[in-house]
Amino acid sequence: QVFSRYVLNQPSTLTDELARFLMIWVGLLGAAYTVGAQRHLAIDLLTLMLSSRKQALLSVIINLLIFLFAGSVIVTGGVKLIEKTLSTAQVSAAMQIPMGYVYLILPLTGIMMMFYALCFISNGLKNMKHSEAGAN
Fold first, then answer.
1. Could you give the CA distance from residue 118 to residue 68 in angstroms, rounded to a whole number?
2. Where in the cell is it found (predicted)?
3. Which residues pair with 136 in a beta bridge?
């Protein structure tokens, strides 16, 4: 945008819109990555006081909630939004691309979050079994 405005003397609206769409995509991909890396905000003061079995159980419950939220809100809502915008032929103002393509990131990142949550649920269940076996 700086190049087109100051060098070519013709400000481009395409770069502004593209930057906005890319920021949405990067933000949502970052959210999915954060879930996968288990780097989301958490207050673990009480968690650290629990036994390893209870920590594993809490991890399973939290990841089950993440799975349900990602599936019901992000994936389902994203698919409905895509269907609606594609059926109404809504396009972006400057680039004239179908807005359904921009919104594709919602179900994609939701599916990624669901996958990560399933992996962590599986790990939590394994940890519960191991802590149970160690207690016996």
1. 10
2. Cell inner membrane
3. none
Output the pTM of the full model.
0.89
Token reading at 35: 């879930």
Rg (CA), the chain: 21
Amino acid at 131: S
CA 129, CA 60: separation in Å to the nearest integer? 12
Total of domains in the chain:
1
Q: What number of CA atoms fall less than 13 Å from residue 30's CA on the CB side?
A: 6
The residue range of the domain holding 81 is 2-135
d(CA 74, CA 50) in angstroms, rounded, equals 31
45 is written with which tokens?
């003061």
Residue 131: partners with Cβ closer than 8 Å, 6 or more residues away: 51, 52, 53, 56
HEC assignment per residue over 13-34 = HHHHHHHHHHHHHHHHHHHHHH
pLDDT, tens only, 13-68: 888 899 999 999 999 999 999 999 999 888 889 899 999 999 999 999 999 999 99
